[in-house]
Design brief:
single chain; 222 residues
């Protein structure tokens, strides 16, 4: 009798153990099926990384950014023809003025200063707000030693070039040349320094500043 009870209890315990194992296996299968059917979501780290904009400016951002905004920093090389400044927004009056100013510029380069002044004075009558005609008139007057007249034209040119660092540097550099010719070395020194702050690549201002500082340190003997 005791042997039967012991066998019966052993068989019952084994059956209960197998039932527990079976339940655990069924639970694992159900969890696996639920996980397989659930939609995949990105991990928190990858989701966070996608929100961080990449360094630099993307090609789309560059395409959307206006060209004028890209050119606001630093001096812009502008040694090309003044005719290149004419576009669809340029008034007919300004277009004619720019073309004539370009002709006056060529006359100055060829050393025909008197002829250039006549040409540029006519251009000034067409468009007095053209800053480039004032600048090249100043340059022509400088070459014929009319230094004070040159400074007057440069003042007008400067008032119309408030947002053009390249041309403002040229104006300050030519002011320095006029002040130097008049013997005002400290004012020349100041104008050259302003030109270099506006455009560190302005060669005339760099050479003029070095020359003027040398003359201030070691004035010539009389």
């Amino acid at each position: 009798m005791g042997m039967r009870r012991e066998r019966f209890s052993g068989a019952l315990g084994a059956k209960l153990f197998r039932c527990r194992i079976l339940r655990i296996l069924i639970l694992f299968v159900v969890l696996a099926m639920v996980q397989a059917c659930a939609p995949t979501r990105p991990s928190p780290s990858s989701e966070f990384r996608t929100r961080i904009p990449p360094r630099g400016v993307s090609s789309e951002a560059k395409a959307q950014k206006p060209e004028g905004e890209l050119k606001t920093r630093g001096p812009i090389p502008d040694e090309g023809s003044l005719v290149a400044k004419i576009d669809s927004r340029t008034s007919p009056q300004r277009a004619v003025s720019l073309r004539l100013t370009e002709e006056g510029k060529r006359l100055i380069k060829s050393g025909q200063y008197a002829k250039a002044m006549v040409q540029l004075e006519k251009t000034l009558a067409i468009d007095s707000s053209n800053p480039y005609v004032h600048y090249y008139l100043a340059k022509a007057h400088y070459h014929v030693t009319h230094y004070r007249e040159s400074l007057d034209f440069l003042d007008v040119a400067e008032s119309h070039l408030t947002d053009q660092r390249y041309w403002l540097a040229k104006v300050q550099s030519l002011k320095g040349e006029n002040f130097h010719a008049l013997g005002f070395l400290n004012r020349a020194n100041s104008s050259y320094a302003k030109a270099l702050r506006l455009n560190p690549k302005n060669r005339e201002a760099s050479e003029g500043l070095a020359r003027t500082q040398r003359e201030i340190r070691f004035p010539p003997r009389r």
